[in-house]
Write a structure and sequence with these properties.
Layout (H helix, E strand, L loop, with lengths): L3 H6 L5 E3 L8 H9 L4 E3 L6 H14 L4 E5 L18 H4 L9 H13 L4 E5 L4 H9 L3 E5 L5 H10 L3 E5 L14 H12 L5 E4 L5 H9 L4 E4 L1 H4 L8 H9 L6 E5 L2 E5 L3 H11 L4 H8 L3 H8 L23 H9 L5
Parallel strand pairs: 1-8, 2-3, 3-4, 4-5, 5-6, 6-7, 7-8
Antiparallel strand pairs: 9-10
Length: 338
C-alpha cells in the first residue's frame, strides 16, 4: 500500500519502530527496514565515533530507509530552544532531559549528513534552527513531543517537520506528563495538524485491532516499541522476553519518576520503587533509588530486576509470542486502513 507516511519516508508499510536507547541495535532496526517499515537507531550516550560505527553497521545490513533518534540540541547563544511555549514547558512535563552543547550538536549533524541518514526522529522540544538545518540537508524529520499538545503540534508544523507522532499514556518508557490515553490524544493531535502533515499513533499498539482503531481515529502510521521488544532480533534479556508473555497491563507496577511516571514488570527493585511512591517519596528520590536511566540497562538488557526495571507499554496484554521482526511488522501493517 501507499499513504503519506510511506511516500514521505520512502517505505512500504507505515510502521515505525520506536527508538529505545540501549534496546535499538543496528540489527533490529535493519530488520524492521528490511521488512518494509522504518527501523530507528536510538542514542544512549555514544561518542561520535561509536555512533558512526552503528550507522555503518546498519547500512551494511539494509539498503532501505532508516531513522536516527535525536534529542533537542541546545545552543543558548544562537537559538535557545525557539519554542513558543518553552516558558511553560515544565508545567507540561516537556523537559529537555539531555541537552548537549552546540559543538556536539554540530558534530552529530555533520555525521548525519556524511553518513546519508535519510530520516531523523526528533524527540522532545522543537528547535527551529536545527529543524531548518536538517531540512536544508534533505533529511526528513519525524517530530515526537514527550507530551503532545495542539500547541507544540502546530509549532512543529510551522518549523517544517514532515511527520508528527501523537504519543498516549499507554506507551512504555518515559510516558507523557499528562495522563491522556492514546485514543484520546490521537484525534486531538490529528485535528491540530489539520491535514498539513500526517500523524502517527504511539502507545499500546501491538496488533491488527489496535492499529485499525488508531487509523479510524485519523492516524496514518504506527509507532511501536513494546511490540518490537517481543522479537527474536530484540536485544532484550531472554528472561525478560519470557516474562513479557506472562504479564498483562494490570500487572505492571507504576511509580513516579522525573517528568512523569515509569512502569515496570514486577521484581525486587520495581516493588521497592512502588513502595517508595506509596510512602510519598519524591520523583527525584525514587529515580535516584532506581539508579537513574541505568536501571533500564540493568533490567532490560541484563535481565536483573534486583537492580533494574523492565518498562513496557500497556499493549503487553496482547503479546503472546516471541516472533521475528518481519512477523511483527506484518501484524501491525495488517491493521492499516488504506
Amino acid at each position: 500500500m501507499t499513504n503519506r507516511v510511506c511516500e514521505i519516508l520512502g517505505i512500504e508499510k507505515p510502521v515505525i519502530q520506536a527508538a529505545m536507547a540501549y534496546l535499538t541495535t543496528p540489527e533490529m532496526a535493519a530488520a524492521v527496514s528490511n521488512a518494509g517499515g522504518l527501523g530507528t537507531l536510538g542514542l544512549s550516550g555514544e561518542s561520535a565515533d561509536q555512533l558512526r560505527d552503528k550507522l555503518i553497521k546498519i547500512k551494511s545490513l539494509t539498503d532501505k530507509p532508516f531513522a536516527l533518534n535525536l534529542s533537542p540540541f541546545k545552543d543558548p547563544q544562537e537559538d535557545a530552544v525557539t519554542h513558543a511555549s518553552s516558558s511553560n514547558a515544565s508545567d507540561a512535563g516537556e523537559e529537555d532531559t539531555t541537552p548537549i552543547s552546540a559543538a556536539t550538536a554540530e558534530e552529530i549533524f555533520q555525521l548525519t549528513v556524511a553518513e546519508n541518514v535519510p530520516v531523523v526522529l526528533w524527540s522532545g522540544l522543537m528547535n527551529r534552527k536545527w529543524a531548518k538545518k536538517f531540512k536544508e540537508a534533505g533529511i526528513k524529520i519525524i517530530f515526537r513531543a514527550v507530551t503532545p499538545t495542539a500547541e507544540n503540534t502546530r509549532e512543529a508544523i510551522e518549523a517544517g517537520v514532515d511527520v508528527i507522532i501523537a504519543t498516549g499514556f499507554d506507551e512504555g518508557g518515559t510516558v507523557p506528563a499528562k495522563v491522556i490515553g492514546t485514543f484520546a490524544i490521537l484525534p486531538l493531535i490529528v485535528d491540530a495538524a489539520d491535514g498539513k502533515v500526517p500523524v502517527v499513533a504511539a502507545g499500546g499498539l501491538v496488533d491488527k485491532r489496535t492499529v485499525r482503531a488508531a487509523f479510524d481515529l485519523g492516524a496514518e502510521g504506527v509507532y511501536a516499541g513494546t511490540a518490537f521488544l517481543a522479537t527474536e532480533e530484540s536485544p532484550l534479556a531472554e528472561n525478560i522476553k519470557q516474562d513479557m508473555l506472562k504479564y498483562d497491563a494490570d500487572d505492571l507496577l507504576m511509580f513516579r519518576a522525573p517528568n512523569s511516571f515509569y512502569r515496570s514488570l514486577p521484581g525486587e527493585l520495581p516493588e521497592k520503587l512502588l513502595e517508595m511512591d506509596k510512602q510519598g517519596k519524591s520523583a527525584a528520590e525514587i529515580w535516584a533509588a532506581a539508579g537513574d536511566y541505568n536501571c533500564l540497562l540493568y533490567g532490560m538488557c541484563d535481565g536483573d530486576l534486583s537492580r533494574g526495571i523492565a518498562s513496557f507499554g500497556l499493549g503487553i496484554s496482547s503479546i503472546h509470542s516471541i516472533d521475528p521482526v518481519s512477523v511483527v511488522v506484518d501484524r501491525l501493517n495488517s491493521g492499516v486502513i488504506a
